[in-house]
Amino acid sequence: MQIRLEKLGFAFTETLYSGVTMTIAETHRVGVVGNNGAGKSTLLKCLTGELEPTEGTITKPRGAKFGVIEQDIPIHLHDKTLYEVIAEAIPEEERDYNTWKVDVALDTFKAPQVIHQKKVKELSGGWQRLALIARTWMGEPDVLLLDEPTNHLDLEKILLLEQWLNEQVRGVPILCISHDRAFLDKCTNTTLFIRPVRSVSYPKPFTQAKEQLIQDDRAYAAQREKELREVERLEKSAHELKMTGANFHSDSASKKSAQMAKRADDLRNQVIENHVEVRRDIKLPNSGMHAKHLMEIKNAKINAPDGRELISINRLAIAPDERIVLLGLNGTGKSTLVNKIHKAFSNIEKSKLEGISITPTAKLGYVDQLLSTLPLDLTMTDYIAGEFQMPRQSVIAKLIETGFPFDRQDQKIRKLSGGEKSRLYLLALRLLEPNFYIMDEPTNHLDIDGQEQLENEILKNGAACILVSHDRSFVSNIGTKFLVIDNGKLVEIPDPDVFYSHMTEGTPLIPQGALRQGL
Which CATH superfamily groups domain 295-377+418-518? Predict the structure, then answer.
């Protein structure tokens, strides 16, 4: 099985990507990387034949079967059980004796027996996603195409998906679109960066490939600068010879001038076109803080909405430069604790009685995973102008900095993509100028470029934050303290890998010597 892409490109009114050249063979697990809107999903549709590329060629075996995983459960499957949805994808002639494959898939993903016969429309988004992945695999595809496979999955399911891809899905080439850097590093061995100019691929997983890409981009930029300097030198010499020919009636000088001008034109046409990222700045300020602690929780109980006690906290203090990451299995109370702290800022005096003390100079910036405070029926311009009392021209400039062109700024917020809503929300945070951030899954919908910008801003400004995230790269890069909710207590661990190993391998959550502090 081998697929060849040769100078592949696609354009609507503008070029989405160009120059995609690579061979995809059986051992290739390709991570497809690009900013939101770069054409990653379009590339997969070109592979399956749903769309025709506007330039270049795709060479593939006749009758190649692509396993494409839909983003949502098709309506005709809604009333089928989880087991039926997966089983009916087994080729009909094999179904009577191969249903054991369904049991293996359900066991691999640790699907509780109680949900096997549940209708898929009643299942969580995560289980629906895994049902579609397992269903596609049952169809025995020649190539597996994964478009954001970790969407809707919690960390435990992401780790199980990685395990499945690496242990059970062998001998089949994979193309995977994902913004999850750790997932790409674990599950791919080739990375394709698709861009409007100079798309490139490397036989390396994401992190190594990104380092190589940065080096190559610098080398190309240096080469381009050198070539442009040579063009300018030739053009200047051609002009001087032209003037000499005119002033002294020298046919020889005029002829040389024309030759040199042609050389300059030819070289300019051959100058390497440089890839330039569209600026979509994410900047999070830190308005400063001089207190010893921004917030302190003492002798507090965190309860579920039904009154059950989830967490008992003896003492937790957050210093101005501390970035705390909350880890824990589903249902242990991570988001409940984050919501409790968020609500404490709206009634500081009442919260004191519940054991949560907040320094008066603490200024909150809050990011929830649903971005629920965005006013969906306002335009971007009206929202920013009204919320921060800014003149229209200033709002236009800020939105352009964040990656929203002028002709789109009067769109209603509800029409924005998930990634665009995230960028707008982060712009609002930037204008608010907080010194303490509460972030519940802040990288949802952000592409890799946006994740890296957000990380850089958090690190550069040194603001305090408390964070819940299943994005392992983000967690490792910004966390200064890692707290696991274990048996209703907060336990500090030295490294998030301790927790991840516990989830996948069943190792003790707190190995001997790893525990530093019970909170």
Answer: P-loop containing nucleotide triphosphate hydrolases (3.40.50.300)
